[in-house]
Here is the input.
Amino acid sequence: MKLNLFVFFLLISTALYGQIAETPEDISPLLVGEKVPNIKITSTEGDKISLFDIIEAQPTILLFYRGGWCPFCNVHLAAVGEKSEEINALGYQIVAISPDAPKKLNESIKEQALDYRLFSDASGALTQAMGLAHKAPDNYESMLSSYSDGENTSFLPAPALFILDTEGVILFEYISPNYKQRISSKMLMAVLGALEE
Here is the structure.
């Protein structure tokens, strides 16, 4: 009886933890006040690094974007990059995550002239645990596979920005199921200023 209950709760927790929503409107992201999961992601050099090893160094602006193939993502990455000196001066680091493989991340850094770090979550483990993963349109399969070195053919992250403390607690978030809508640099700086008060 005890074993059956254990298996039942294990199945339920696994189902809730790793779900991929049908549409961007169906995602269930983590909320302000919750702690992000400590899951390993891949650096531009191909090294596996736990998220907590990155964020414990200093408060973090954590960006999730769809990939280097997305023009709206590239505009947003560049806009945040233009404020990176001001953001760093406030004591924050910027970290951006997508399903792209390290090679594609390096291409994005070069093309967008970014001076902050990009990481790969091609498996989708972190994106799913953050509650941001949703099914990609069928016609995206080949492109997603190409950009992720074959690891991802089926999911996209809803674009999102989180501000985290060094314990991984979410202090602020901006998430839009509409991939064309992103938080403006002006609003981001206002939020960072408010958090400093």
Summary: The chain is about 40% helix and 20% strand. The radius of gyration is 17 Å.
